[in-house]
Amino acid sequence: MNVKMNIAVVHGGTSSESAISTKNAGYIASALEENGHIVSMLEFDENIYMNLQQNKPQLVFLAVQGKYHGDGTLQSICEHLRLPYTGSKSTAAAIINDKCLCKKICAYHGIRTPEFIYMNKQTFFATPKLALLEKIEKVMSYPVVAKAITQGGSYGIEFIQSRDDYEKIAQTFNYDDEIIIEQFIKGKFATTSILEIEKVSTALPTLTGENVNGEQKDMVLFNKAFTVKEADLSTELKEELAQISIEVFHIVNAKNYARIDYMIEEETNLPYFIEINAVPGLKPESFYPHAAARYGLSFNDLIEIIVRNEL
After folding, report:
1. In angstroms, rounded to a whole number, what is the distance separating the alpha carbons of residues 283 and 290?
2. Which of 72, 87, 103, 185 could potentially form a cystine with 263 if both were Cys, beta carbons 3.0 to 4.6 Å apart?
3. What are the distances in angstroms from CA 194 to CA 1, 183, 271, 287?
């Protein structure tokens, strides 16, 4: 079914993620045009509601990132305007973008995820240092990871090796008023992408990355150039990750496409769910297009499937 559509690609995000979002949007827009669609690029700013009203697209393709953008905010605006859009709907997107809530829901449903505790800015700075450290140590041992709950792209993450790194936890609040402190899992990073193909949630090949370690050699970060490759895991573990990923996709009521990240513990070879991304990066060098290519889909085919899933 080759139907030419008027599609608006909306891009933008927090200061740390805006440039990445705009770059994503450019690739998406080019593919849509090559597929025969009429495309407009709209920046998510204070005029986005009015611009969408005036543009009246048949579909909004989301390329937004981060808090107040891809966390259910733009999705809710589209729903209010009765405009169809790509990806998970507003409630699911809000849950997915909240690392704490998402982990709690997945853990409730039996998904293995690292131990963690929640802290907000007000409580953190109003509580004596020793009491906070003891709270962490009652639940998990060092090293741990402090994460701003709504940030992506490896922003707002600190590696905490001991009590001496208390100030690093405090720095995490520069990115958000809420954080989680999570047990560090030493091992391999793996990511599995899910794409709805003919209404069936389908796991694409599981991938990993080279050159993904930060200043701490055991810490996986994606704030510099890295190389994507197929994960060096057993067939059984890849099948397990595919099954878990589809389950997580359904648990949080994700739609159309998403990417789920894991750490494979070095000692036990057990996979630990880290997070799910409702608006995964679609730049050619990103994990998602690589996974689609290994499944046999060109970039333009992938973009067209995402569009058709919303019809």
Report:
1. 10
2. 185
3. 23, 26, 17, 12
d(CA 258, CA 291): 12
List domains and CATH numbers for the chain: 6-85 (3.40.50.20), 98-112+185-308 (3.30.470.20), 116-183 (3.30.1490.20)
Instruction: Let me know: does 60 contact 26? Beta carbons within 8 Å.
Output: no
Neighbours of 33 (CB within 10 A): 13
Residue 290: helix, strand or coil by DSSP?
helix
Structure tokens, 208: 């990993």
pTM above 0.85, yes or no: yes
Structure token digits, residue 130: 């020793």
| SS3 sequence of 24-87 | HHHHHHHHHHHCCCEEEEEECCCCHHHHHHHHCCCEEEEEEECCCCCCCHHHHHHHHCCCCECC
Dist. CA 262–CA 276, nearest whole Å: 9
CA distances (Å), 250 to each of 19, 245, 256, 257, 307, in order? 30, 9, 11, 11, 20
Of the candidates 261, 309, 287, 266, the one whose C-alpha atom is nearest the C-alpha of residue 96 is 261
Instruction: Note the pLDDT tens digit of each residue in 240-270.
Output: 999 999 999 999 999 999 999 999 999 999 9
d(Cα 182, Cα 265) in Å, to the nearest integer?
14
Q: What is the pLDDT of residues 95-134, one digit of tens each?
A: 999 999 999 999 999 999 999 999 999 999 999 999 999 9
How many other CB atoms sit within 10 Å of the CB of residue 304? 20
